[in-house]
Design goal:
- Helices cover 36% and strands 11% of the residues.
- The protein is built from 14 helices and twelve strands.
- The strands form four sheets. Strands 6-8-7-9-10 form a five-stranded mixed beta sheet.
- β7, α8 and β8 form a beta-alpha-beta unit.
- The longest helix has 17 residues.
- The N terminus is likely disordered.
């Protein structure tokens, strides 16, 4: 969302964007939403996800993402969270960033798609953005070929002569219910490619956050990969988008992830797992043996993580590792992947148990489900 000073926040994931739009629409200005209202909004925004087997984890992950983007605040008092796993807040406070009043604008003739602008509070910067979009609506209104769908960055370059401009706008105040959406601009997000190496015929893909550790484990697994058919380079937060490319790989029934043990390293796979669920892919699971090894390595100093947020983050890890990780995060420590180097992996081979893990569910690839589709195994409130 655009702040009063037009400083952008990191782009939201598609699922977080949909939840935020629903929360903003249901809260007239900054206000508090109870857990009941929050779960109802979650079910409305993402019905398939809210009824999936990992619905609580998905909602908790999305709440962290929205809190990081300063779109809501979570309670700091542990007593204001329920006893579920992961815990959910009794209430959240929705934050609405109102644009600063702009200077009087000259009268403009807005296209029907932008009729809402004439009564909206928008800044001068936002007015200039909308003027470019208005021009595109005008110039393409009578030509079907001009409205043929293009990928997001191609459309962004066409409208703004800047291929990344729409990336910075779609999570902001100009997009949402009653405003702009991607369908109006005849555009869509193109999943970026995932860098991977094919190791064998296994039904598991192992995704590794950082490049050097990717090279190390690719080398060590090359001779005997077991069930690991592919090893992929996650490239940090890029994996939240590139996970969609896994749908193109045949017979992948399990997605394992191995990253840094810090706040970012835990939020990346949790968010990617939400995208996987929406696409009909297997959930993203921790490569437990790798994390066990990493927890034996020396720690670095990091920012302390609020206990409430830390409890949500460690829920993605195997239960046996959560308490140790929670103490580490709240103490202001982290462990980088590179702390477990080639020699450590050769000396302690227990991590190789990841080669033999069977899929939690046998689910061959299918076409991505319709928007909002999902399973019906349990509810977020259960």
């Amino acid at each position: 969302m655009t702040t009063p000073h037009d400083s952008p926040v990191p782009p939201l994931s598609p699922a977080a964007t949909r939840l935020n739009d629903t929360l903003q629409a249901r809260t007239p200005g900054s206000g508090t939403l109870s857990r009941t209202a929050l779960t109802e909004a979650f079910a409305s925004a993402l019905p398939g996800l809210s009824h999936s087997g990992n619905s609580r984890q998905s909602l908790a992950t999305l709440l962290i993402e929205l809190a990081d983007a300063q779109l809501l605040t979570l309670p700091s008092n542990p007593a204001k969270w329920d006893a579920g796993r992961p815990p959910l807040p009794d209430a959240v406070r929705i934050v609405r960033h109102h644009p600063a009043p702009s200077a009087p604008r000259e009268a403009r003739s807005w296209r029907p798609e932008l009729s809402w602008v004439s009564t909206a509070r928008v800044t001068t910067t936002q007015t200039n953005i909308l003027t470019a979009i208005n021009r595109w609506f005008r110039d393409t209104s009578s030509t079907a070929e001009a409205r043929r769908p293009l990928s997001l960055r191609e459309r962004s370059h066409e409208i703004f002569n800047d291929e990344k401009r729409l990336d910075s706008l779609i999570g902001g105040a100009l997009f949402g219910p009653g405003r702009l959406d991607l369908d109006q601009l005849a555009t869509y997000r193109e999943a970026p490619p995932l860098a991977y190496r094919h190791l064998g015929d296994g039904d598991t893909i192992l995704v590794i956050e950082n490049s050097d550790t990717f090279a190390t484990l690719r080398h060590l697994l090359q001779r005997d990969p077991g069930r690991i058919g592919y090893v992929a380079f996650g490239a940090g937060r890029a994996f939240e988008a590139t996970i969609a490319s896994i749908a193109e790989l045949p017979q992948i029934h399990r997605i394992l992830y191995y990253g840094d043990l810090d706040a970012d390293g835990l939020s990346i796979p949790a968010r990617a797992s939400i995208t996987a669920t929406l696409l009909g892919l297997p959930p993203v699971e921790p490569a437990e043996g790798c994390y066990r090894l990493l927890l034996t390595r020396p720690r670095n100093t990091a920012l302390k993580v609020d206990p409430s947020r830390a409890r949500l983050l460690v829920e993605w890890l195997p239960p046996a590792l959560q308490d140790q990780a929670l103490v580490m995060l709240t103490a202001g420590d982290r462990v980088a992947q590179e702390a477990a180097n080639l020699n450590h992996h050769l000396a302690d081979t227990q991590w190789l148990t990841i080669r033999e893990l069977a899929p939690t569910t046998s689910r061959p690839h299918s076409e991505p489900p319709p928007r909002g589709a999902g399973g019906n195994s349990s509810s977020v409130t259960s």
